[in-house]
Amino acid sequence: MSVISVIKKVTYGVASGALYYLIYVVALPTLISSITATPIPISGMMATYFGFFVALGTAESVLEGNVVSIPLRLISKLLGALILWNVLSGGHISTTMNYGALTISVEADISILLYVVILVSLIYGFLDAFTYFSKTS
């Protein structure tokens, strides 16, 4: 394997890890927050999440074509689902709004929507693994 191909694979892995980070930690929580009109708390673990996604994406792209890349793909999808679950507090979102002299507490249970997003993500991961097996056989 040449140095150029390794650099390309590492670059692709970093980019795909950053893309998973943007989807699971930034875009989906922001989208759900705007739909439900409730704020999503920002965790201090954002840099750690980014590091996990980049590390998994890099390992997955460098080990592409190896059997070890399949569990890494599934782990990255599962990690994304778990982080999304954590960021959205398991689908139970609540906020307090001041309306004149009144304080209104609003709660939204979006756990069904969250289950659907996580299920689609995991199905995509398993289909990706099955595609790998169908290519090798």
Brief digest:
The protein has 137 residues and is mainly alpha-helical. The protein is 70% helix and 12% strand.
Task: Characterize the structure shown.
The longest helix has 34 residues, at 3-36. The protein has helices at 3-36, 46-62, 69-87, 111-136, and strands at 92-99, 102-109. The model has no long low-confidence stretch (mean pLDDT 80). By secondary structure, the chain is mainly alpha-helical. Strand 1 (92-99) and strand 2 (102-109) form a beta hairpin. 20% of the residues are buried. A two-stranded antiparallel ribbon has the order 1-2. It is built from four helices and two strands, in the order H-H-H-E-E-H. Helix content is 70%, strand content 12%. It is elongated and about 70 Å long.
Task: Label this structure with key terms.
single chain; 137 residues; mainly alpha; two-stranded antiparallel sheet; 12% strand; elongated
Describe the SSE topology.
Layout: H1 3-36, H2 46-62, H3 69-87, E1 92-99, E2 102-109, H4 111-136
Antiparallel strand pairs: 1-2
Rg calc: 18 Å
Give the strand tally. 2
Order of helices and strands: HHHEEH
Major β-sheet profile: 2 strands, antiparallel
Q: Which strand order do you get reading across the main beta sheet? A: 1-2
Outline: elongated
Q: Helix segment count?
A: 4
By secondary-structure content and strand pairing, the structural class works out as mainly alpha
What is the straight-line distance between the termini?
23 Å
Strand coverage percent: 5-15%
State the share of residues found in helices, binned by percent: over 70%
